[in-house]
């Protein structure tokens, strides 16, 4: 039942999203959009080497997209590129392959585990993870180009 995924904690996370807005001078920006539900998440990222140093986002999404964005914003600063790529893959597997949710500072993502039974909600749940990994890729590509020049 949908009540399983829209529980009190998900609604709390969706209603209290940290780091809303845009960064004035991000190293990269990325947008992820779900055609199915119309949800969109835009992220701005700054990094020092492989470590995220600043983050902001504009979240126009359903409660699930808002909740996953809230979790991301709470823990992304200080995380590494490889950690965030691994996180996206872990969440994808949790939703699509009955994988285990992440542990440690990302343990709140377990609240999204019931979404696996609602394929139509997977895309909105994944938006923030996809956008962050896209932004990291942009920063790394620019860094490689600079190093080769």
CATH architecture: Alpha-Beta Complex
Order of helices and strands: HEEEHHH
CATH topology label = Sufe protein. Chain: A
Global geometry: globular
Summarize the structure.
This protein is an alpha+beta fold. It is built from 4 helices and 3 strands. A hairpin with a 2-residue loop joins strand 2 (40-48) and strand 3.
SSE blueprint:
Layout: H1 8-15, E1 28-33, E2 40-48, E3 51-60, H2 63-75, H3 81-96, H4 122-148
Antiparallel strand pairs: 1-2, 2-3
Can you describe this structure?
This protein has 149 residues and is of the alpha+beta class. It has one domain: Sufe protein. Chain: A, CATH 3.90.1010.10. It contains 4 helices and 3 strands, in the order αβββααα. The protein has helices spanning 8-15, 63-75, 81-96, 122-148, and strands at residues 28-33, 40-48, 51-60. Strands 1-2-3 form a 3-stranded antiparallel β-sheet. Helix 2 packs across helix 4 (122-148) and helix 3 runs antiparallel to helix 4 (122-148). The protein is globular, with a radius of gyration of 15 Å. The mean pLDDT is 94.
Which features does this protein show?
single chain; 149 residues; alpha+beta; Sufe protein. Chain: A; 3-stranded antiparallel sheet; 4 helices; 3 strands; 17% strand; iron-sulfur cluster binding; NIF_FeS_clus_asmbl_NifU_N; iron ion binding; Iron-sulfur cluster assembly scaffold protein
